Amino acid sequence: MKHLLVTGGAGFIGSNFVRFVMRHRPGLRITNLDALTYSGNLENLRDLEGEPRYRFVKGDICDRTLLDSLLKDVDAVAHLAAESHVDRSIIDSGPFFRANVIGTQTLLDACRAAGFAEGSGKRFLHVSTDEVYGSLPLERKDLLFTEVTPIQANSPYAASKAASDLCVRAAQHTFHFPACVTRCSNNFGAYQFPEKVIPLFVTNLLDGKQVPLYGDGLNVRDWLHVEDHCDALLTVLEKGRFGEVYNIGGNNERSNLELTHLILQIMGKDHSFIRPVQDRPGHDRRYAIDSSKIRRDLGWEPTRSAWPSALESTVKWYADNRAWWERVKSGEYQTYYQRQYGAR
Ligand code: NAD
Ligand code: DAU
Predict the structure, then answer these.
(1) Which residues are catalytic?
(2) pLDDT tens digits for range 25-36
(3) For the whole model, what pTM was predicted?
(4) Half-sphere exposure of 139 (CA within 13 A, CB side)
(5) Are the beta carbons of 135 and 153 closer than 8 angstroms?
(6) Centroid of ligand 2 to alpha carbon of 218 (angstroms)
């Protein structure tokens, strides 16, 4: 790999992935294509400005003309761009189907036209989610999502991601498109948009506010540190078998109540800071990933996700980086592109 195109590289996982690859693959050039929607934030990659191996392009994965020009000398694509927040998809699903389905199909078509095919040496990684598998019952701890669990997406977000996975599958099956798909569990770490539960709760508490816990708080998520996810993504991009799906997870199941209590404990707050609120419609009860395939076939292991230390260091990151999340919460971060690139 000489030149990697990352889509969605200004978001939470994308910016961590760009930084991770820059650090671990010193010979590689990266182009970061991102539309800078509300969750794209160039301040996440401030430290890479001026780095000759890195280039940012503001643009949309639905823009075929732009994709054709960018893909000319690209030999690998890591596709992370998406609308990613379940609650927003419940309010308005339109942007999800546009970005996640039309965007992915447009990118696939452009890559095929640019010579992505088995035997070409080019590789495509589609970053998906465990939410495509639906929900597991709380009382059946023996059940985990495997790569052959039927797709049973329950939210508009999950449905749009499942549809994008099928677009990739169809390209692979019909055109021998050189792609792998990953499905990861919930991520946590630095630069996560404070609409997602961990940064929302931590930043609320740093401001002395309560945290809105949905329903009975017993829904379970399997938490993985974002750098372990990035490590897995690079592993699959480089070594994954075309046509395969790889589940990624941390064997780290926690109920939201348990997560909330731990955050309160780390931050020295009592339970009066919990505000029970109405449940999310259609709220998936439990996600739990069986990641034995990627561990066995590609040798990946999570090394940064152990609790409580990984959660403590994440809480500390938000405490130490108040300016970052205050600018996100106030909307000021959206002026950054204009200031940085407006005159260029
Ligand atoms: P995010 O919302 O923080 O970032 C998404 C990025 O995509 C943003 O920078 C946004 O500007 C960009 N984007 C959106 N639409 C675009 C378009 N049409 N063209 C170009 N760029 C566009 O999301 P995230 O949490 O970093 O998730 C990244 C990917 O990982 C998504 O595909 C998501 O489904 C998947 N994923 C996320 C998690 C998680 O826990 N956050 C877990 C598993 C998989
Ligand atoms: O499983 C992977 C998925 O994880 C990714 O595909 C999604 O992009 C990502 O957003 C995440 O989805 P969730 O819906 O699980 O994440 P969220 O942070 O929104 O919610 C986590 C849990 O916390 C969920 O059970 C709902 C609950 N919650 C969330 C919010 C925002 C609350 O109780 N209160 C809240 O205010």
Answers:
(1) 130-131, 157
(2) 999 999 999 999
(3) 0.98
(4) 0
(5) no
(6) 13
